[in-house]
């Protein structure tokens, strides 16, 4: 097991600064023999926080809008002192219906991205609030779109070696999350963004959560339906990293087929399609499945046997026999029999021909390479020498 890196959090991403505030302002405000009043301390605290926030905010300039999601608008931005150093600034929409005006998605995204620092996970450089009280996340700029764009673009040709490279990057990112007891819970091609140098990065941690306590109940309403594993469709409240591995397997299948593999139009349709494709879950192949809250027994005449290697090889010939074996291990119905991220990385598929394509040589969206490349001085995943070296968490990824 790899040692978890200890991110050195910069003062700029430290939202609470009360200790420092006490030291700086408490002394000045103290009258001889009297302790500073709580009000004075509170004001001092607020002043220092605002000052630190202003310092961070002034480091960046916001440029054009890049896109919009459910809870945020994403802008291109750059460092004021170094205009060629580009960033993505994700401005979280304030919504009165949420606690403190912020959605849980935003809070999760900040919380987990601050903890994770890895070449295959989008980097969070800074966090600041703007004058209108909106929260802004300064993220690594990933200009080459996402894997969904590549899958859908009929003009882009890719092969088994490219799929192996993309899957390798995804597997390493997921492995790192799980090593740090974090579940992503929304793995799908659209959340796999691509850096200038071709590196794929896991993004959008709005549904992430920690899973250190295996007996804690968690919501089953996570993961975009097509990528949702059977245990969540059956309403399981206690689950593990296996939920992300299922999604990874479905992404693998989609990369190979270039269409979503099990695309249900309702939760019921989704579980039906999974049963038709992979087999019907029963007490024999998945002990305990019938006890799950929303388990639906299959009609006696409709039990599909669990599919073996031959099925996977027939459906996904381009994966080859070893690749089909890996895919089968990720799409195992019983979550306790599914491969872990570590087992995925140890699979012999990575070492069989074809070797994964070098990230720089991977197919990319039209016009993306030269144009974007010449815009940038910094490649994705190279934080140490970047202008963000003082603010970004240090990379410490030597394992695997
Ligand atoms: P999101 O709210 O994360 O789904 O982002 C909305 C859109 O903004 C995405 O579809 C991308 O087009 C764009 N975007 C998000 N994050 C980045 C990033 N780090 N770099 C470049 N574009 C981004």
From TrEMBL:
It comes from the Eukaryota. One of its GO terms (biological process) is positive regulation of transcription elongation by RNA polymerase II. GO terms for cellular component: cytoplasm; transcription factor TFIIK complex. Residues 355-400 are annotated as: Disordered. The keyword Methyltransferase does not apply. It catalyses: L-threonyl-[protein] + ATP = O-phospho-L-threonyl-[protein] + ADP + H(+); L-seryl-[protein] + ATP = O-phospho-L-seryl-[protein] + ADP + H(+). Residues 60-350 form the Protein kinase domain. ATP binds at residues 66-74, 90-91. CDD domains: STKc_CDK7. Residues 376-393 have a biased composition (Basic and acidic residues). Keywords: ATP-binding, Kinase, Nucleotide-binding, Phosphoprotein, Serine/threonine-protein kinase, Transferase. GO terms for molecular function: ATP binding; cyclin-dependent protein serine/threonine kinase activity; RNA polymerase II CTD heptapeptide repeat kinase activity. SUPFAM superfamilies: Protein kinase-like (PK-like) (SSF56112). The active site is at residue 186. Belongs to the protein kinase superfamily. CMGC Ser/Thr protein kinase family. CDC2/CDKX subfamily. This is Kinase-like domain-containing protein. It comes from Aspergillus avenaceus. The lineage of its organism: Eukaryota, Fungi, Dikarya, Ascomycota, Pezizomycotina.
């Amino acid at each position: 097991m790899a040692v978890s890196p200890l991110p050195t959090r910069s003062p700029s991403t430290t939202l609470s600064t009360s200790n420092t505030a006490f030291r700086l302002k408490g002394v000045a405000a103290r009258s001889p023999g009297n302790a500073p009043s709580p009000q004075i301390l509170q004001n001092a605290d607020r002043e220092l926080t605002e000052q630190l926030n202003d310092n961070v905010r002034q480091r960046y300039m916001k440029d054009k809008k890049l896109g919009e999601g459910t809870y945020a608008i994403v802008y291109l931005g750059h460092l004021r002192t170094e205009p060629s150093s580009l960033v993505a600034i994700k401005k979280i929409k304030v919504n009165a219906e949420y606690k403190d005006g912020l959605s849980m998605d935003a809070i999760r995204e900040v919380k987990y991205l601050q903890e994770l620092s890895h070449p295959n996970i989008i980097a969070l450089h800074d966090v600041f609030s703007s004058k209108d009280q909106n929260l802004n996340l300064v993220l690594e700029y990933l200009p080459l779109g996402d894997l969904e764009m590549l899958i859908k673009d009929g003009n882009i040709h890719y092969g088994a070696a490219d799929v192996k490279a993309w899957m390798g990057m995804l597997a390493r990112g997921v492995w790192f999350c799980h090593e740090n007891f974090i579940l992503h819970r929304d793995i799908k091609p659209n959340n796999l963004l691509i850096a200038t140098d071709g590196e794929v990065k896991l993004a959008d941690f709005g549904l992430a959560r920690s899973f250190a306590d295996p007996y804690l109940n968690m919501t089953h309403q996570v993961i975009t339906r097509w990528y949702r594993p059977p245990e969540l469709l059956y309403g399981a409240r206690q689950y593990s990293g296996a939920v992300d591995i299922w999604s990874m397997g479905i992404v693998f299948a989609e990369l190979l087929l270039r269409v979503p593999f099990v695309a249900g139009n309702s939760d019921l349709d989704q579980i039906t399609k999974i049963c038709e494709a992979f087999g019907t879950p029963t007490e024999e192949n998945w002990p305990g499945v019938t006890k799950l809250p929303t388990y639906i027994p299959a009609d006696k005449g409709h039990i599909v046997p669990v599919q073996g290697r031959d099925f996977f090889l027939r459906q996904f010939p381009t994966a080859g026999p070893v690749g089909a074996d890996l895919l089968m291990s990720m799409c195992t119905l019983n979550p306790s029999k599914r491969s872990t991220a570590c087992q995925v990385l140890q699979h012999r598929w990575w070492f069989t021909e074809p070797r994964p394509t070098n990230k720089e040589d991977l197919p990319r969206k039209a016009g993306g390479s030269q144009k974007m490349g010449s815009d940038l001085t910094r490649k994705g995943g190279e934080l140490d020498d970047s202008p963000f070296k003082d603010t970004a968490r240090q990379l410490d990824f030597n394992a695997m």
